[in-house]
Specification:
The chain has a 6-stranded parallel beta sheet, with helices on both faces. Strands 7-6-8-9-10-12 form a 6-stranded mixed beta sheet. The chain has 333 residues and is α/β, with parallel strands linked by helices. 47% of the residues are buried. Strand 4, helix 5 and strand 5 form a beta-alpha-beta unit. The chain has 14 helices and 12 strands. The radius of gyration is 22 Å and the shape is elongated.
Length: 333
Amino acid sequence: MRNSCRLALAVMCVLGMFAATTVFAAEKLEQTGKGLTIYFDVGGAVGEPYATVVQNGAAQAAADLGCEVKFVYSDWDPQVMVENFKKSLAAKPDGIVVMGHPGDDAYAPLISEAIAKGIVVTATDTELPGLTAANQSKGFGYAGVDNKARGIALASEAIRRFGLAKGDKALVWGLKSKPTRGLSTVGIIETLEKAGLAVGYMEITPEIDKDASLGAPLMTAALAANPDTKVVFMDHGALTGQLENFFRAAGVAPDKIIGCGFSLSPATAAAIKSGYVDLVGDGQPFLQGYLPVLQIALTKKFGFSGLVIETGAGFVHKDNIDFIAPLAKKGLR
């Protein structure tokens, strides 16, 4: 009995020490970003599903680290992203988070100016390989996926999982014209063509890039012209979220055409359950929001160099959607 009491007391002491350490660690973490102001371009429009998850991650990092994050929106327009950077630069913050859609050349002089002024810049969602290589020692990192690799991975997984074969018709709706960002679309197309599939392609217009719901008539027309289409790839998170609506508008029944895309959202999760979306590449945008804020705080506080972190290598499908769907509803996945 006496030994049992001693054991219980020892356990209580250990748990008490652990609790105290955890509280201390949390208090220290909150001080890491104290006093810092960070401007963060989340890419899409206010309330757009993918951009919202990115923003949720950044907001959580701000709460954990004690810094202030100001969000800007660009409707996925590279020129607006550049203009947003200029405005953020003029505000003289401690850090700026960019998405790499405009490309290295468009950003290079602005980011050089920012770094010269002591502003830490880092990238998310779409890589800027040249600027990362040149400025990684100054805190320029990247949280996201390798765009071409993610395209190759999605197409390869679809071929394997669904038994796609030579001669099957595929429709790819993407952003091939965009520098760096378009490599994802290129990866999908090249992989499908290498496997012998007949690939049709549509470029996402700026209007549909901004408001994915406008794409229904184009999808209906494309499928009417190619009724034997076996698989559709959407290289766009918001378009993936609209795929069930597109198929319904075109009179396509569940599981008749294989639907593949990127970026989970509540709408996409529901479409997986209903049989309209079959495979989603998960880039985990919550982390693409959280990690860049942490990067800037760590660089400002401790002088850490830029971290290049791959945030997505997995897939969401009917076999794991029951676990992940509640997280998507909370804006975490």
